Amino acid sequence: MKSPCGYCNLFYVARREDGMGGTDEMGSANAADGMSDSGGADGTGGADGTGTGGTEHLTVARVGATLVLTLNRPEAKNALSLPMLVGLYDGWVAADEDDDIRSVVLTGAGGTFCAGMDLKALAGKGMAGRQYRDRLRADPDLHWKAMLRHHRPRKPVIAAVEGHCVAGGTEILQGTDIRVAGESATFGLFEVKRGLFPIGGSTVRLPRQIPRTHALEMLLTGRPYPAAEAERIGLIGHVVPDGTALEKALEIAGQINACGPLAVEAVKASVYEAAEMTETDGLKAELARGWPIFDTADAKEGSRAFAEKRPPVYRRA
Length: 317
Prior knowledge:
By secondary structure, the chain is an alpha/beta fold. The chain has 13 helices and 10 strands. The strands form 2 sheets. Strands 1-2-3-4-5-7-10 form a 7-stranded mixed β-sheet. Helix 2 (82-97) links the parallel strand 3 and strand 4. The relative contact order is 0.13.
């Protein structure tokens, strides 16, 4: 899929490097919309995490069997940049290729999840990270895959949201599987307020994830949604005290990690596969995907462990 002209300019046209950030991000419409610059997770380092790559705008850490990807451009409210998108894509690939990783948590540094695309960059005023442009030339869909528009990691992805999660942030959110937010978090698709189109998948995915009336209101008004309302309409699953979204997400990830990895991945794949089918076809597909799991060594181990009253030891076999 080729990018439309606005995104094409953003990702492919070499411009002078005059930086990004400030107050021109898509989502920073604005402090009046509830922007918060304090509180929340500020990365994944420390005693529990070990660094495993990333870029200057995307940090990667391992917490047990969970890969934690942190949008790390807090001075620009984690507005999407080229280094961030390349780092995100590489993170999804790394999670899929490493069988020791059983879940992924996506979060943002500095008390903000993601304030969307940078309007300065969209207007053609330059974009940091020109060294990554060769990656985009080699894979013209890389930025869409990074935003989970048409790339679905096989491992469960949990979003840990603090602060603003708007425009491109809300679009990326729709590609995640489980969503946790601090009570002061704000969501919304502000594109129509700028005369733009939320082309990261929201007109397709949002009405499939929440009731159509709520999806259309969010898409057509461009207004902000506080965390409590986002939970009420089904956009997110948990609202927790500010600053604890990452902790809750890691708790959920730990529960997933304790389950059979082959079963977890098959269940996730079945849910998304069946969503595109009639109920009759979906039930047939479920049997085709589910029955082989019963023949795995992990399934037998799960039953033995239950009988022996001990934690199972799964080996992805």
